[in-house]
Amino acid sequence: MLILVLLLATAISLGPYQLGPGDLLAFLMAKATGGASPLSAPAEAVILQIRLPRVLAATAVGAALAASGAAYQSLFRNPLVSPDILGVSAGAAFGAVIGIFLSLPVLAIEAASFAGGLAAVIIVYVIAAAIRGRDAVLVLVLAGVVIGALFGAGVGLLKYLADPYNQLPAITFWLLGSLAAANLRDLADLLPAVAIGLVPLALLRWRVDVMTLGEEEAAALGINTRTLRVAVMAGATLMTSAAVAASGIIGWVGLVVPHLARLVVGPAFARLLLVSVLFGAGYLLAVDTLARTIGNVELPLGVLTAALGTPVFLWLLAFSRRSAWS
Known about the structure:
Layout: H1 2-13, H2 21-33, H3 41-76, H4 88-101, H5 106-130, H6 136-161, H7 167-176, H8 184-203, H9 205-211, H10 215-220, H11 225-247, H12 253-265, H13 269-293, H14 301-319
Helix pairs in contact: 1-3, 1-13, 3-8, 3-11, 3-12, 3-13, 4-5, 4-6, 4-7, 4-11, 5-6, 5-11, 8-11, 12-13, 12-14
């Protein structure tokens, strides 16, 4: 938690308009006590209108993607499952792109994103349940890849049909992933969706632990497995869809961060959820700060998280040979 607070302060301070830690602390104290601000009007505008909304959006998106990944991995008992692998991100992106293509308002775009993400995970789960006699984990992963590719083709078709001067640039830059345009209005839509999605995961955390024993064992212990799956999938999909609608597709967070959290606190979902939220928030905040300060041109978040996530996941894969991921 302390590291996350330090990351928040660092992210607010860094940027083309430099702010010292003392300036930020004095500003916060003045706001808390109702005194006069020690900063100039431009500095206050930078903090309140540009950096603070972006920093809060980065923490919320990172927490949402990491919590969703942890929930999917525990629910399906598969360390390879994530919002990306199951096609949730692609489905949510397809829904959001439809909203952008039709020039819908922000709330309607988020609703379309949620519908697309939910449709993707339901289709994948139905396919995995229908195909019997084969490895369930393999079927689940392959179904997610196929459905994700199908929704990705739909996104490609909409890009082809979009207006090349207005809609296509907006769709293209959005798909690369970025929080550069985050503002207070986006936070008003993002934060409640993430909070609502976390509620069923937090309330059902002990039952999710029971589900890791297997569906038959969980049912024998009195768990309504179907209702539990629907509730957890709805909460995780809501968070993923809200994150995708706010920032575009930012991969690897939902896959890598839960593994790192599992190495620290173990597989118990009651602990894993909280640590994944903190790790995800801090990780994406650090990556977003790096993306906007590493050079003169801001790097897309989706590109940077992939570049950082690939070697980390390969290291985790090598480490798993010596220590089980379970």
